[in-house]
From TrEMBL:
Region entry Disordered, spans: 85-131
InterPro entries hit by this protein: Dirigent (IPR004265), EF-G-like_DII (IPR053905), IF2_II (IPR044145), P-loop_NTPase (IPR027417), Small_GTP-bd (IPR005225), T_Tr_GTP-bd_dom (IPR000795), TF_IF2_bacterial-like (IPR000178), TIF_IF2 (IPR015760)
Highest taxon above the source species: Eukaryota
GO annotation, cellular component aspect: mitochondrion
Subcellular location: Mitochondrion
Basic residues: bias regions: 98-115
Function: One of the essential components for the initiation of protein synthesis. Protects formylmethionyl-tRNA from spontaneous hydrolysis and promotes its binding to the 30S ribosomal subunits. Also involved in the hydrolysis of GTP during the formation of the 70S ribosomal complex.
Name of the protein in question: Translation initiation factor IF-2, chloroplastic
PROSITE patterns: G_TR_2
Length: 827
């Protein structure tokens, strides 16, 4: 075959493929070998080709038999039936694919016998575990992108760092068309793009070309529980809301407009709960407000939730006006409250600061005019303005599910005007506003800035704290809601996976330490979304090293049969807070349902349930003490043998039993710990000896007894965690984590039987610091529960059990007490 050009060669390749010729692989170093072997055949029967080298530059002429400089190896060739019909014994015949595979198997199957004497066994490679997904702050960090209406796709790409091609493909998927990167996109589409690429969104709203007018201030009333916040608001608007609250405490965020009697202006008030469980509600109130009214009782002073309210106000950068309430009570001390405020860094006007302090009485309605004047003065200084036209910006204060009206949300408009009939997106929920009502239930067509209203028409119950976004159409509302739902599910699954990994690691560590952790699944149902979230967070604080509280579900509305079925499936109990429960059938009789309307009653019941489920901690406890009165020595049978010392003892407290661990103390120092070799009473072997009886005792490997030594008998007991609850919000599920012993001196100026305040300075393995113990009576109650109410170091607020033992009590000025303190870690 005379091949003169590359084109002719390619045509031959195509013809050979059409004839169905077989592809064989050969090893050929140059093109001249292929030429000399096959070019002498008939052109009708043979066509050949070779594949390009991986970096080849095309085919070259093969007519002269010279090798091409561009190609250095031949990969494939095509042959006719004549070539394949060669004899199998031809040494130049290339092997077929099947023959090469058989040859490889034969070669692989050949093994050489290893000499066990000379050959060393193969070394085992160390096991390298596969890489494990680790939680890192970098992985969890999300970039926040600021978007605004009318921004171009190119500007969005620069802010997010994402390529234009990726953004355009996302736009096509969601049904949006952008012809150029210079085209403007709406703020809703920009938010959807940011969520699809995994970024957080912050909306920027411009006030250019809009009408800006003054607006009323939004004031949040905060403070400790039972300091008179709701009563103060009742006095301002002449109502009696506080008397209708369950348990006499506020457990929801209330929003209403109060007309000031003196000036005639209106102020929007938010009433927040003061209980410790509603911390998130107070944080939301501080985030949406303009001014915080800090209510402090004149008789109680600064309390834990008062300090927390100050922290929330500082975090939100909101000014504070202090209202010292209950000034009409006999024990009121406003000056002490002012000093406490100054100690917390609140610069009040009495010391040259700018924080106004007003003394009021909600019961007698005194000082209300001064409080009104202080609020209006603070609002004038802030020069509060808002945009009144255009789409509204609002904030969800509370949300609930009504049986007849469906999902409802209480919102406060921050800017713009919210009108009935608009399409809105709130969190992951969307809907068309069917009705708008003010806080007295009167329908209205629109809501202006700083106006609290209740809206209905949503498809689901939103979360308290979500922003209300007005969109142009139902299609846009659905699209944005679906995009937020997808991002929420991604974040939820990621958080659940991280929590699962953390829980597995914790359980592995606990199993190595020798004790397991019991899980308590709980389903929470409440009347409003904010309360459901607050109750869930409060229950999670009851987690302990022995019991894990798992909130399986948290929702709004009454309890139905589906909730009971789910609780029975996952062996959970149900918390019904301010909601009703359907009739429980016999099939779900084993499901525990806790009905409560007051938060601290609920925490008390769940805490007791946790204590029942907790496996407890094994620890040694002093079962009895005996004092050595005399020593007897029994010589051995042989002279070279040492004798045995017998301690003649009298049991002073508790009981001493033979199977217990014995501890010998001399002058308060432990010299020996070991088992009891023999315990006799009146020459008879006994198992135990009670208080007031005498006995003979032999301790293994210890013979150096002295008169006056104290022998303690220790027994191992299972110690359950202790739940401590108070109406002020101090709820602890505690585990015994440390012991401490110390001595202190007390100046006795009166009789012994008094309540006294003691200070103990100690150092233990887990806790260090100074602790103040209040109300300790060593004479009347030597062992009792005491409250650790303050101190330094690691002790701020705690609870504990203290055993007081008198060491030397005489008619002297000083005496010494010894304390054995079982510390409880507080959560």
């Amino acid at each position: 075959m005379d091949v003169s050009t590359d084109l002719t060669c390619l045509q031959g390749i195509q013809a050979s493929f059409k004839r169905g010729l077989v592809l064989l692989r050969v090893a050929a170093s140059t093109e001249s070998q292929i030429s000399s072997t096959f070019l002498n055949s008939n052109s009708e029967s043979v066509a050949f080709s070779f594949a390009r080298y991986i970096n080849g530059f095309g085919f070259s002429s093969l007519s002269n038999g010279e090798s091409s400089p561009n190609l250095t190896s031949i990969r494939y060739f095509h042959a006719s039936r004549e070539t394949l019909a060669r004899r199998k014994d031809d040494p130049d015949r290339p092997l077929s694919h099947r023959e090469r595979k058989k040859q490889a198997v034969k070669t692989k199957a050949k093994f050489s016998k290893r000499d066990k004497k000379t050959d060393k066994p193969p070394a085992e490679a160390p096991y390298v575990p596969p890489p494990r997904l680790e939680k890192t702050e970098k992985r969890m960090a999300e970039k926040t992108v600021e978007v605004f209406d009318g921004m171009t796709l190119l500007e969005f790409s620069k802010r997010t760092g994402e390529s234009l091609a990726v953004l355009q493909s996302i736009l096509v998927d969601v049904g949006e068309t952008v012809s150029s990167e210079f085209d403007a996109i709406s703020i809703d589409v920009a938010e959807l793009l940011a969520m699809e690429i995994g970024n957080k969104v912050k909306r920027e709203h411009t006030t250019e070309g809009t009408q800006i007018l003054p607006r009323p201030p939004v004031v949040t009333v905060m403070g400790h529980v039972d300091h008179g916040k709701t009563s103060l608001l009742d006095a301002l608007r002449n109502t009696s809301v506080a008397a209708k609250e369950a348990g006499g405490i506020t457990q929801h965020v209330g929003a209403f407009v109060v007309g000031m009697p003196e000036s005639g202006t209106s102020i929007t008030f938010l009433d927040t709960p003061g209980h410790a469980a509603f911390s998130e509600m107070r944080a939301r109130g501080a985030a949406v407000t303009d001014i915080v009214v800090l209510v402090v009782a004149a008789d109680d002073g600064m309390m834990p939730q008062t300090l927390e309210a100050i922290a929330h106000a500082r975090s939100a950068n909101v000014p504070i006006v202090v209202a010292i309430n209950k000034c009409d009570k006999p024990g009121a001390n406003p000056e002490r409250v002012k000093n406490q405020l100054a100690a917390e860094g609140i610069e009040i006007e009495d010391i040259g600061g700018n924080v106004q302090v007003v003394e009021v009485s909600a019961v007698k309605s005194t000082g209300l005019d001064k409080l009104e004047e202080a609020l209006l003065l603070q609002a004038v200084d802030m020069d509060l303005m808002a945009r009144v036209d255009g789409p509204a910006q609002a904030y969800v204060v509370e949300a609930r599910l009504d049986k007849g009206r469906g999902p409802l949300a209480t919102v406060i408009v921050k800017a713009g005007t919210l009108e009935s009939g608009q399409h809105v997106v709130i969190g992951c929920q969307w809907g068309k506003l069917r009705a708008i009502r003010d806080m007295v239930g009167k329908p209205t067509e629109r809501a202006t800035p700083a106006m609290p209203v209740e809206i209905e028409g949503l498809k689901g119950v939103p979360m308290a704290g979500d922003d209300v976004i007005v969109v142009e159409s139902e299609k846009r509302a659905k699209m944005l809601s679906e995009g937020r739902t997808r991002k929420y599910e991604r974040d939820r699954l990621l958080k659940a996976e991280e929590d699962r990994i953390a829980e597995l690691e914790k359980r592995e560590a606990e199993s190595e330490e020798g004790f397991g952790r019991v899980e308590l699944p709980i389903i929470v149902k409440s009347d409003v979304q904010g309360t459901a979230q607050a109750v869930s967070d409060a229950l999670r604080t009851l987690n302990s090293p022995q019991v894990f509280v798992n909130i399986v579900q948290s929702g709004v509305g009454a309890i139905f049969q589906s909730d009971l079925a789910r609780a029975q499936t996952c062996n959970a109990c149900i918390v019904a807070f301010n909601v009703k429960c359907c009739k429980i059938s016999s099939a779900y009789a084993r499901v525990k349902v806790f009905h409560h309307r007051v938060i601290y009653h609920l925490l008390q019941d769940i805490g007791n349930l946790i204590v029942e489920k907790a496996p407890g901690v094994s620890e040694l406890e002093v079962a009895g003490e005996a004092e050595v009165l005399s020593i007897f020595k029994v010589l051995g049978k042989r002279r070279e043998e040492d004798g045995v010392s017998i301690a003649g003892c009298k049991v002073m407290d508790g009981r001493v039993f033979r199977s217990g661990l014995m501890r010998l103390l001399r002058s308060g120092e432990v010299l020996f710990e070991g088992s009891c070799a023999s315990l006799k009473r009146e020459k008879q072997d006994v198992e135990q000896v009670g208080k007031g009886n005498e006995c003979g005792l032999v301790m293994g490997d210890w013979n150096d007894f002295r008169v006056g030594d104290v022998i303690q008998c220790m027994e191992r007991v299972i110690r359950k965690p202790k739940f401590v609850s108070s109406e002020s919000g101090a709820n602890y599920l505690s585990e015994p984590v440390a012991r401490a012993q110390g001595f202190f001196f007390y100046n006795k100026k009166t009789t012994y039987n008094i309540w006294m305040a003691c200070t103990l300075v100690f150092n233990s393995t887990q806790h260090k610091g100074t602790m103040t113990i209040m109300d300790a009576n060593p004479m009347m109650e030597p062992t009792r529960d005491l409250a650790i109410v303050g101190g330094t170091g690691d002790f701020i607020m705690a609870r504990g059990i203290v055993t007081l033992t008198t060491d030397l009590i005489q008619e002297s000025k000083y005496f010494r007490l010894k304390l054995d303190i079982k510390l409880y870690e507080c959560y």
